[in-house]
Write a sequence for this structure.
């Protein structure tokens, strides 16, 4: 992926899904973020799985990732 210009603003966004087709939802989120006008997707983290917190009874495990945007 390309290097952003020196004047670019960097954003790191955490993503997570624990319902339905978790992987598909995360893939769609990355795709839609990359498609934003004047936005460049610089990197995507590995996919991680984590257990839902105690208060999320009945929830499945989370798939988590992060993206770096310019």
């Amino acid at each position: 992926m390309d290097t952003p210009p020196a004047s670019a603003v960097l954003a790191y966004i955490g993503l997570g899904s624990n319902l339905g087709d978790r992987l598909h939802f995360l893939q769609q989120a990355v795709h839609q973020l990359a498609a934003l006008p004047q936005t460049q997707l610089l990197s995507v983290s590995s996919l991680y799985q984590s257990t839902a917190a105690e208060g999320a009874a009945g929830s499945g495990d989370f798939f988590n990732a992060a993206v770096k945007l310019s």
In short: The mean pLDDT is 89. The beta strands are 11-17, 41-44, 48-50, 62-69. Helices lie at 22-34.
